[in-house]
From TrEMBL:
Name of this chain's protein: ER membrane protein complex subunit 4
Keywords: Endoplasmic reticulum, Membrane, Transmembrane, Transmembrane helix
Family: Belongs to the EMC4 family.
A GO CC annotation given for this chain: endoplasmic reticulum membrane
Pfam families in alphabetical order: EMC4
């Protein structure tokens, strides 16, 4: 077998590329003229000034976008809680492959989410991520609690005294008799 080759094409034109100037000489598309004037006013894009220095307004705008992205990542598990709760409700309390797979998904995904939290929020450096991370962990723990409740309702968790009878130490009788005891 021949080794597979992967190809990638970079469609972003750099300023020193020969097609960059040609593309900027073309008339703008319908509806894009307003976007280009806004970009020129704020210094975004390649035409409005130097991209190497950012103004304080641009830094604040970028920080606000990062905070909004962090909050959207933090509230992501909340959307999945409702979806999985509905799926667990529809699967019933019987033990079958669908209900077990849905319940195991509700147990394992929050654990994976909490363990991969640094990778989730890794691209958002430079902003305060303490509150979004706390919300993220709280929603994942709530999702985990919903999965534990479903396991309990399916009787998969040892919550009754009958589940622990295997760990009871039984007394061994030292003597046995064939004569039944008499009541005094």
């Amino acid at each position: 077998m021949a080794p597979q080759q992967s190809f990638s094409i970079d469609l972003v034109l750099k300023e020193n590329h020969k097609g960059y100037d040609l593309l900027h000489k073309c008339p703008p598309l319908v509806g894009m003229k307003g976007v280009q004037t806004v970009e020129r006013q704020h210094g975004v894009g390649g035409t409005g000034g130097s991209n190497t220095t950012m103004t304080q307004q641009q830094k604040n705008l970028l920080a606000q976008k990062k905070k909004n992205k962090a909050m959207s990542l933090a509230t992501g598990p909340g959307q999945q809680i409702l979806m999985n709760a509905f799926m667990m409700y529809m699967s019933g309390k019987q033990l079958n492959i669908f209900s077990i797979s849905v319940t195991s998904m509700a147990i394992l995904n929050p654990i994976r989410g909490i363990l991969s939290m640094e990778q989730t929020f890794g691209a958002l450096e430079g902003v305060d991520l303490q509150v979004p991370k706390l919300i993220f962990v709280g929603l994942n723990l709530a999702w985990f609690a919903v999965g534990l409740y479903k396991m309990s309702s399916m009787r998969l968790l040892p919550t009754t005294s009958a589940d622990w009878t295997g760990s009871i130490v039984w007394k061994e009788m030292m003597e046995t008799s064939s004569i039944p005891p008499t009541g005094f």
